[in-house]
């Protein structure tokens, strides 16, 4: 089995496994604090207990997710050194600063989250309690920012020179603010907000389908769908900038994602399809000029093709499908939330039908799938490099013979944690139905 | 001061912070589980839960600080330790993961679940053992340098008496530190039954801690004579540590000044821990890696130090707030809030 024979392959697979699991919790961990903050703020503004209750209940789920995010984050932090020792030695010299600051940001977040959770009823003034959430949300967003700059650095190394094998002229700030950073950070943060909103919307829609007709769920659904729409549109706009970044600085990644082999003007965008041996795409959806527009904002612009690069530097061709999954889901979620918002304004009834609510329920997992596809695409799309143009994954990996064993150990761990999270979250909300909790708070207006 | 020295002082301080905070946490988990087995949970669980709830994430961060910091200041450690620690650190990660997440599951989801409590207690004993192996490896003698990089000799490691003495020390120190802290905490909470029980635990674990610590110094004499010699040059630090130890045991024995006893305990461990660290300087991995070979470039060192100071300015007030609300608020400690 390749997992036990090739440490490079098994290191890649273990990193894939840990990151895939971690990204679920990291994404919600970045996205949820803002949602909780908005809900509590609206609740205080409108003096509406339902929104306060949303903040309270979401925070209860959030803290369970954060716990798993912390432990899987610790795992990936250590695994970077365990699986990619040569890379981390080099990276330590240039990009250690944001990694270090991320810990501060997280520490900051953890402290205030602890205080926030245990002080629901300790403040006379609700606004003071809400203020405690600001550092939580800021800390979470800054964590995402710092870590994403490291990923940006892997795609667009900057802030150092290598002369005769010696590293010179290191600038940690330049490394952090590399050309990939702006679009990547914006994309990661806005998709985290979008995904958190759609996951919460999916839960509210599910409760409504399951027969609860409580206005609490309707308010939650309405608010999260609107927030989801805003961030989905923001994501699409940022995605357009990401395309331009790739065309300029990592054309081989864009070309692989687009199955665009020959450099040409007026390049079409191809979605889905099948690639044959002669680099021809069959059954694809072709949108004329769209790739040139995505890459350079000009329908006649020239887009560099993959064949400009030596074959050993080509990313795997399946990144095209990952790209398509991401794009398709993103567009679908905009359409869905726009339809919801428009229909609610017009008072059209179809959005209150179960079939439409099922679509919203499906939107939660779909958004998470889009996040995963996006990360897989950016990581596989950088292959064979771990640090583009400087170090390959082959050169970076550990020589240890036991990575395959560790893969199964960690797979077992994530399975247990995954089941644990599901069971606990179910219990938390089943034992405290919203109707009961609202009644306890003594102010159910509905 | 050179960047190597600044870096090492900061990192060693964080590691010391982790040793104390994590010991309290590991030991508390163990005593909690143990009280469930012996049917004394009505005495202990409340005071332990009260302390653990708001601080558990904070503990983990100390560890993350240490390893992220050491890779930043001394990138070569990523290469050396990254290559050899795959198995021991992976096991530690898994234990930490089980511990952290199951604690959260118990607290926020399924209160009073015995399985979680046992899991939390068991990992509290295995973790210090598995983490302390890293310190043993750094003493040298267990790593072979090959053309493919460094490799760990597992047989040599696990057949060495030094390894097992350090394991025993780590476990008994965890229980001792934790018992002394919780004695003070329970006393503050006015929970005298719990104080009485925890005081007994503290006295039980005091002796094994000091005996194994002495034994390790003795074993180093044959394992790493050079290190042993520089340890001996710092004999006065160990002497101070011993005096602190005797005073804190005295106070606990006499049932007074529990707060002072805990402060003296911190002093005791600080002197021993820093004496050990100073005597080992400049080696990061004996004899292959020193801080001079491993240190990062000036630009990174300066920016890490600046980031560190700025970070502390942000964190210290926040930590102060946390402590004021939960650790030092008598009404909270005694359960009235």
UniProtKB/TrEMBL annotation, chain A:
Query: Which Gene Ontology molecular-function terms are recorded?
Result: electron transfer activity; heme binding; metal ion binding; oxidoreductase activity, acting on diphenols and related substances as donors, oxygen as acceptor
Recorded GO CC terms? cytochrome complex; plasma membrane
> Membrane-spanning regions, if any?
20-42, 62-84, 90-118, 130-154, 185-206, 227-247, 318-343, 355-377, 402-425
In the bilayer, the protein is annotated as: Multi-pass membrane protein
Example GO biological process: aerobic electron transport chain
Is the Electron transport keyword given for this protein?
yes
Keyword Signal belongs to the record: no
In Swiss-Prot or TrEMBL terms, this protein is called Cytochrome ubiquinol oxidase subunit I
Native species: Alkalibacillus haloalkaliphilus
TrEMBL record, chain B:
Where is the protein found, in the record's own terms?
Answer: Cell membrane
Which InterPro entries does the entry mention?
Cyt-d_oxidase_su2 (IPR003317)
Question: Mind listing the UniProt keywords for this protein, alphabetically?
Answer: Cell membrane, Membrane, Transmembrane, Transmembrane helix
Principal subcellular localization: membrane
Cleavable signal peptide: none
Keyword Chaperone set for record: no
The membrane topology noted for this protein in its Swiss-Prot or TrEMBL record is: Multi-pass membrane protein
Question: What transmembrane ranges does the database entry give?
Answer: 6-34, 55-74, 80-105, 117-142, 162-186, 198-218, 234-253, 260-279, 299-322
GO CC, sorted alphabetically, is: plasma membrane
Q: Which family does it belong to?
A: Belongs to the cytochrome ubiquinol oxidase subunit 2 family.
Q: What is this protein called?
A: Cytochrome D ubiquinol oxidase subunit II
Q: Lineage from the top down?
A: Bacteria, Bacillati, Bacillota, Bacilli, Bacillales
């Amino acid at each position: 089995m390749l997992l036990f024979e090739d440490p490079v392959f098994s290191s890649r697979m273990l990193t894939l496994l840990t990151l895939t699991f971690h990204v679920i919790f990291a994404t919600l961990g970045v996205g949820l604090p803002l949602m909780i903050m908005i809900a509590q703020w609206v609740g205080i503004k409108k003096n509406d207990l339902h929104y306060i209750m949303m903040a309270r209940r979401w925070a209860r789920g959030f803290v369970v997710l954060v716990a798993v995010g912390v432990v899987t984050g610790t795992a990936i932090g250590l695994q970077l050194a365990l699986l990619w020792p040569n890379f981390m030695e080099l990276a330590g010299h240039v990009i250690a600063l944001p990694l270090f600051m991320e810990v501060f940001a997280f520490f900051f977040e953890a402290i205030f989250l602890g205080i926030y959770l245990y002080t629901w009823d300790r403040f006379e003034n609700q606004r003071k309690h809400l203020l405690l959430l600001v550092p939580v949300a800021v800390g979470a967003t800054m964590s995402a920012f710092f870590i994403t700059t490291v990923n940006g650095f892997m795609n667009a190394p900057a802030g150092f020179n290598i002369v005769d094998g010696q590293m010179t002229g290191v600038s940690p700030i330049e490394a952090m603010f590399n050309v990939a950073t702006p679009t990547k950070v914006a994309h990661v943060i806005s998709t985290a907000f979008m995904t958190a909103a759609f996951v919460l919307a999916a839960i509210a829609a599910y409760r409504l389908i399951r027969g609860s007709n409580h206005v609490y769920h309707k308010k939650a659904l309405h608010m999260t769908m609107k927030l989801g729409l805003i961030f989905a549109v923001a994501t699409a706009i940022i995605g357009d900038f990401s395309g331009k970044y790739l065309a300029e600085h990592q054309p081989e990644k864009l070309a692989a994602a687009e199955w665009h082999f020959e450099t040409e003007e007026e390049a079409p965008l191809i979605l889905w399809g099948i690639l044959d041996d002669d680099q021809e795409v069959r059954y694809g959806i072709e949108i004329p000029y769209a790739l040139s527009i995505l890459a350079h904002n000009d329908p006649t612009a020239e887009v560099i093709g993959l064949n400009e690069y030596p074959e050993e530097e080509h990313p795997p061709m399946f990144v095209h499908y990952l790209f398509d999954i991401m794009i398709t889901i993103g567009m679908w979620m905009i359409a869905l939330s726009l339809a919801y918002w428009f229909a609610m304004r017009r008072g059209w009834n179809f959005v209150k039908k179960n079939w439409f609510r099922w679509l919203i329920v499906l939107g939660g997992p779909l958004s998470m799938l889009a996040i995963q596809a996006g990360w897989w695409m950016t990581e596989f799309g950088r292959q064979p490099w771990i640090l583009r143009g400087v170090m390959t994954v082959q050169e970076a990996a550990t020589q240890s013979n036991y990575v395959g064993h560790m893969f199964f150990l960690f797979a077992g761990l994530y399975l247990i944690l995954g089941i644990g999270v599901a069971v606990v979250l179910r219990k938390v909300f089943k034992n405290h139905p919203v109707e009961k909790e609202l009644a306890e708070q003594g102010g159910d207006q509905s | 001061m050179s960047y190597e020295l600044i870096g090492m002082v900061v990192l060693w301080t964080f590691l010391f912070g982790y040793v104390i905070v994590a010991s309290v946490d590991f030991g508390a988990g163990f005593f909690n589980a143990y009280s469930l087995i012996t049917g004394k949970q009505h005495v202990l669980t409340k005071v332990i839960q009260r302390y653990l709830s708001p601080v558990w994430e904070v503990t983990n961060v100390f560890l993350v600080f240490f390893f992220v910091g050491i890779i930043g200041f001394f990138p070569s450690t990523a290469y050396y330790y990254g290559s050899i620690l795959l198995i021991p650190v992976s096991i530690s990660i898994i234990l930490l993961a089980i511990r952290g997440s199951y604690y959260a599951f118990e607290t926020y989801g399924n209160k009073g679940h015995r399985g979680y409590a046992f899991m939390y207690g068991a990992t509290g004993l295995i973790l210090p053992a598995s983490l302390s192996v890293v310190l043993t490896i750094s003493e040298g003698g267990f790593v072979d340098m090959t053309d493919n990089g460094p490799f760990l000799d597992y047989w040599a490691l696990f057949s060495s008496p030094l390894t097992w003495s350090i394991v025993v020390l780590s476990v008994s120190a965890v229980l001792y530190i934790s018992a002394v802290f919780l004695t003070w905490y329970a006393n503050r909470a006015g929970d005298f039954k719990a104080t009485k029980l925890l005081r007994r635990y503290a006295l039980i674990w005091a002796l094994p801690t000091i005996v194994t610590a002495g034994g390790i110094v003795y074993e180093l004499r044959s394992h790493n004579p050079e290190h042993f010699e520089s340890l001996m040059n710092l004999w006065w630090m160990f002497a101070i540590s011993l005096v602190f130890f005797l005073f804190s045991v005295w106070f606990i024995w006499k049932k007074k000044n529990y707060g002072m006893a805990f402060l003296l305990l911190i002093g005791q461990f600080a002197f021993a821990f820093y004496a050990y660290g100073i005597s080992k300087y400049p080696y990061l991995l004996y004899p292959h890696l020193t801080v001079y070979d491993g240190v990062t470039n000036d630009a990174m060192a300066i920016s890490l130090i600046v980031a560190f100071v700025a970070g502390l300015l942000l964190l210290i007030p926040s930590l102060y707030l946390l402590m004021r609300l939960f650790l030092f608020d008598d009404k909270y400690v005694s359960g009235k809030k």
